[in-house]
Amino acid sequence: MALMDEEPLKRAKAHEIGQDLSLLSVEELETRIAVLKEEIVRIEQELSQKGATRAAADALFRR
Length: 63
Hints:
Radius of gyration: 21 Å
Distance between the termini: 65 Å
Helix content: 55-70%
Strand content: under 5%
Oligomer: single chain
Largest sheet: none
């Protein structure tokens, strides 16, 4: 029953823009770089998809 009374654990953010990095190890910094690069790829893919959708809509309505 004690487990139900406890609040769920909050996950720490992988990275926060402007965060003090001086206390992080080299390994932690490399991990954050990898996470951020993956996020950039994900964002670029979403941007590309939205651009393709917009181009299709523009082509349709220009006819």
